[in-house]
Design brief:
The complex is a heterodimer. Helices cover about 40% and strands about 10% of the residues of chain A. Chain A is α/β, with parallel strands linked by helices. Chain A folds into 3 domains: about 200 residues, Rossmann fold, CATH 3.40.50; about 80 residues, Ubiquitin-like (UB roll), CATH 3.10.20.600; about 80 residues, de novo design (two linked rop proteins), CATH 1.20.1440. In chain A, helix 8 links the parallel strand 2 and strand 3. The chains are: A alpha/beta, B alpha+beta. Chains A and B meet through helix 13, helix 14 and helix 15 of A and helix 2 of B.
Chain lengths: ~450, ~280
């Protein structure tokens, strides 16, 4: 079940890792190797969260400012570094005021869909049905994504504070933190953070003496990609099989336990803190991996180009392609690096920011094998509920197997078949998993000329 | 018997269906509207006595302004929406869904499957002879019914009928995921070791013949099943005072299976083990 790394962690495209040192931070992306689980004594020491932040110490950092700086186990240290000022401000503003600030700041969801957070909160807060729930989606299972993990392991109190603010804004008294099962260290730190916040009156019946009650319960995932889908996460928390639900009704109307629910990503929530404490510029986290010299989490203002980002991380000599947005995202060519890294900019270029994955591939990579690995990932992770995804992902993988060593006219028939199946998966699948399972393959064919 | 449902009158919702203004009661689905307008939309996982899981996706239609297609069986009509049921985009998805199903599952006993395959020009063979299939053998572990999952399209109807929508027995659920997902008892135990109460309500709703009466399965295997020689007689179950309706299927003066009318306002096609399987005494001569 602990299929830790996922597709993106194998930029060389092989089924196994093969020889040679990988040029990416294996330990950062895939800590829960079978060896490490079976014999903890033999496992190499896990690097701290700060090790995944190449920009550590840069005064321009906002979201990552405390990562590697504060002691993630100390509430006092968090408060000494500006912690809990945003919550006090939130109480001064009132719930409607918080929603107004978040809406005015134009905050968009960072989980991949870029939905306006203020609108989601407003829609939840205004529901007559009670209770309302907050769910923090930390399933973080998009291959190549590890930003939420770094945030939680480096600055766990920030998430607890942000969840409290979100709960206050939407009128929820209970928040569920749905944590990826492969994140044991984050679990320990968050449990500690919740317990100490509760002991100090920052969670519980009467938060900060303001008469507002809020508490957080952690639920661990069991290693399914589908459980990061915003309605499948409800099924999982409720104890059912992790399958997406039909929308409409949307979560803001009928979500967790059938009640109005706001589901937010960690990075989205943590963004609320600087919004309330008077930040100047909005930033975005990027998860750099693959053939770069300094993989890790980078925090940059919106509008920086893909080229500037990859320059920071140290690009390979000859770049073949960049996968944006993870397995559900799409490839871009090395001559498209001037794409501005904004939601609009990537959309205009026909690609996606997704969850912020930037996986760089050099020219040693066998593209057909990378695509096969991605297809295998989706086939493996499909929940099996709807036909287009359950069978479509299998047919996609079969076709990619057939053409893995073919090009041109020899591959044309299967590429046409892939297009037809891919179109039906995108149009007719129930949830985002099936709808995006063909994105990366399509972009590799159309933009990279993978089988020409 | 004609059922006369008693409801509060419902408001009407007006929307555009294939260019025609239509009005349907609030809460009705697009499929309800299509059927009222005489449009034939293929369905598999939708059933007249259940709330569909909309898992098969064969009924998808285009809703103007939506990013993806919508399942007609589940999407409720909204005032002012514009729905197109027969566009190239919707037909393409239906065709591919039929191809995906037919290339992986035995649809030979699915009513109308062959007709739809023809209508949508589906060619399931184009995935090649090596295309993965369900590859299941019939499970025969009791005297009452057979589970032939090679014919299963995972429509969830049996799970819903066994579980929260009707029987509340929860003997079966979906196990495994993706292409390996199968309807299963707990730990894949034989039905005799499961929570099954043999009401047969799962067979009543199965759209593909994956679940069938042992009597029917045996006769089909022996080649003696002959629907043209069968009569159907609806009567009242004599076991208790509820008064469930039974439809006795009789071939050569032998009861060969028992179903129940879906429009019965009390039972909606559901029975218990006695009504469904307890007919042997009738045949003691």
């Amino acid at each position: 079940m602990r299929a830790g790394a996922g597709a993106g962690a194998e930029p060389r495209g092989g089924e196994g890792r093969g020889g040679g040192e990988p040029a990416y931070a294996t330990a950062v992306i895939a800590p829960a190797t079978p060896t490490a689980l079976a014999a903890p004594d033999l496992a190499p020491a896990e690097p701290s969260a700060g090790a995944a932040v190449p920009q550590a110490g840069d005064p321009a950092l906002t979201l990552l400012a405390r990562v590697g700086v504060v002691d993630p186990a100390s509430l006092d240290d968090y408060r000494a570094h500006g912690g809990y000022t945003a919550l006090r401000r939130a109480f001064a503003l009132g719930p409607a005021g918080v929603i107004r600030e978040v809406t005015d700041a134009g905050l968009l969801g960072r989980g991949g869909a870029a939905f306006p957070t203020g609108r989601k909160w407003q829609a939840t807060a205004s529901q007559a049905d009670h209770p309302h729930y907050l769910v923090c989606n930390v399933d973080e299972s998009e291959p190549g994504t590890f930003k939420d993990r770094v945030l939680m392991e480096g600055d766990p109190y920030a998430l607890i504070e942000a969840m409290t603010i979100a709960g206050y804004a939407i009128g929820a008294h209970k928040g569920f933190l749905y944590l990826r099962g492969e994140y044991p260290r984050a679990l320990g730190l968050l449990e500690n953070a919740i317990a100490s916040a509760r002991a100090r009156g920052l969670l519980g019946q009467d938060v900060l003496g303001q008469g507002y009650g809020f508490d957080i319960e952690i639920r661990r995932g069991a290693g399914a990609y589908i459980c990061g889908e915003e309605t499948a996460i409800f099924n999982s928390v409720e104890g059912y099989r992790g399958e997406p639900r039909t929308k409409p009704p949307f979560p803001v109307e009928k979500g967790l336990f059938g009640k109005p629910t706001a589901v937010n990503n960690v990075e989205t929530l943590v963004n609320v803190l600087p919004i309330l404490t008077g930040r100047t510029e909005e930033t975005k986290l990027f998860c750099l991996s693959g053939n770069v010299d300094r993989p890790g989490i980078y925090e940059l203002r919106f509008g920086v180009t893909l080229r500037e980002l990859i320059e920071l991380a140290g690009p390979p000599d000859t770049m073949r392609a960049v996968l944006l947005g993870g397995a559900a995202g799409s490839f871009v060519r090395p001559d498209e690096l001037d794409i501005p890294l904004t939601f609009e900019g990537t959309h205009a270029a026909g690609t996606t920011l997704g969850s912020g994955v930037v996986l760089v591939l050099d020219d040693t990579v066998e593209l057909p094998r990378v695509l096969l690995r991605i297809a295998k990932f989706f086939r493996d992770e499909s929940c099996g509920q709807c036909v287009p995804c359950r069978v479509g992902t299998v047919r996609q993988e079969e076709a990619l197997h057939r053409i893995k060593d073919r090009t041109g006219a020899d591959a044309a028939g299967d590429i046409a078949l892939l297009r037809e199946v891919g179109r039906a998966m995108r149009d007719a699948s129930i949830c985002g998993l099936g709808q995006t399972a063909w994105n990366a393959v399509e972009s590799a064919i159309d933009r990279l000329g993978a089988y020409e | 018997m004609t059922a006369i449902p008693l409801h509060m009158p419902r408001r009407l919702v007006e929307f555009t269906l294939d260019g025609q203004e239509v009005r349907v009661p609030e809460g009705d689905t697009i499929l309800d509207a299509c059927r009222a307008a005489g449009k034939d939309i293929p369905t598999l996982c939708q059933g007249d006595t259940l709330t569909p899981k909309n898992a098969c996706r064969v009924c998808v239609v285009e809703v103007e302004g939506a990013r993806t297609l919508a399942p007609a069986c589940s999407r409720r009509a909204e005032p002012g929406m514009t729905v197109l049921t027969d566009t190239e985009r919707a037909r393409h998805s239906r065709k591919v869904v039929l191809e995906l199903l037919a290339s992986s599952t035995d649809l030979s006993m699915t009513p109308r499957a062959a007709e739809w395959m023809k209508e949508y020009e589906a060619e399931p063979d184009r995935f090649g002879p090596a295309a993965a299939r369900m590859n299941e053998e019939p499970k025969i572990d009791n005297d009452l019914y057979v589970r032939d999952y090679d014919k299963c399209i995972l429509c969830y109807k049996c799970v819903d009928a066994c579980g929260e929508q009707w029987q509340n027995t929860f003997a079966i659920a979906v196990a495994g995921r993706g292409f390996d997902a199968r309807i299963s008892t707990e730990h894949d135990a034989p039905l005799t070791d499961s929570a099954c109460v043999y009401c047969g309500n799962c067979i009543e709703v199965c759209p593909t013949g994956a679940l069938s009466f042992k009597s029917e399965f045996d006769m089909r295997t022996a080649g003696t099943w002959d629907e043209s020689a069968q009569t159907e007689t609806t009567t009242v179950c004599a076991y208790c005072g509820v008064g469930c309706n039974l439809t006795l299927h009789v071939q050569e003066n032998e009861i060969i299976k028992v179903t129940s009318p879906h429009d019965n306002p009390v039972t909606h096609g559901n029975l218990c083990i006695k009504g469904r399987f307890g007919y042997q005494h009738v045949q003691q001569r």
